[in-house]
Amino acid sequence: xxxxxxxxxxxxxxxxxxxxxxxxxxxxxxxxxxxxxxxxxxxxxxxxxxxxxxxxxxxxxxxxxxxxxxxxxxxxxxxxxxxxxxxxxxxxxxxxxxxxxxxxxxxxxxxxxxxxxxxxxxxxxxxxxxxxxxxxxxxxxxxxxxxxxxxxxxxxxxxxxxxxxxxxxxxxxxxxxxxxxxxxxxxxxxxxxxxxxxxxxxxxxxxxxxxxxxxxxxxxxxxxxxxxxxxxxxxxxxxxxxxxxxxxxx
Length: 250
Ligand SMILES: NC(=O)c1ccc[n+]([C@@H]2O[C@H](COP(=O)([O-])OP(=O)(O)OC[C@H]3O[C@@H](n4cnc5c(N)ncnc54)[C@H](O)[C@@H]3O)[C@@H](O)[C@H]2O)c1
Prior knowledge:
Elements: E1 8-12, H1 17-28, E2 32-37, H2 40-50, E3 53-56, H3 62-71, E4 77-80, H4 104-132, E5 136-140, H5 153-173, E6 179-185, H6 195-203, H7 212-224, E7 229-233, E8 240-242
Parallel strand pairs: 1-2, 1-4, 2-3, 4-5, 5-6, 6-7
Antiparallel strand pairs: 7-8
Helix pairs in contact: 1-2, 1-7, 3-4, 4-5
The protein binds nicotinamide-adenine-dinucleotide.
């Protein structure tokens, strides 16, 4: 028996990288998976590989989310994972892509995918999970939600926003039997990490982890089930829970 036997999971950005890995791992653990993405070719491939379902969903569209949950909201796990960086050089010298070069289109694009996409996805499923007094919302933030990421401050902004959202929602959901937690990994081997970023990571011994680590990280968050928690991992370090201190209450 897997640890997720009988559960249904919905995964945004499930066509590639971390989302696809979660689809594979959850399936191995006994769950059935719905892969949601805008990349229909890859999304259908991943869904076929895991014996799941594929839906086209642009996470930036509030209307698309409403329609999705009207059709199907019976999920034990909702992974709000789709995300992008502002530009290719998420690592590198801070001066390679200064803030003044982030034009409006790039700014609105990352904000709508990384922030709106998570807020809409959570907003729509919360009432259903609360009514069932069960469920887990897993948000893919990043280590960049906890530490600075000077070459892409807007990426850092969106990921810090996700950590703040999860911490606050965790307290709000706790009395209702619903859990929300954040995944905060360092670099994982996915198409999001450009060749230049890999070079930079290597020069600073940061390392890029195999994508399977994302499956372990998600399973740790799901099995520990601590509301508002952030789960971190980086090359050479084990998975652990990041615990911040309240500046006044400790
Ligand atoms: N790879 C890393 O090193 C790393 C580290 C920490 C956090 N993350 C985060 O993990 C998440 C997944 O990233 P990844 O590395 O797997 O990248 P990826 O590029 O492999 O996958 C991202 C997926 O999101 C989908 N997507 C993009 N815009 C979308 C939209 N509007 N609606 C629906 N789907 C959309 C893409 O089609 C793609 O399938 C992101 O939130 C990313 O910020 C990645």
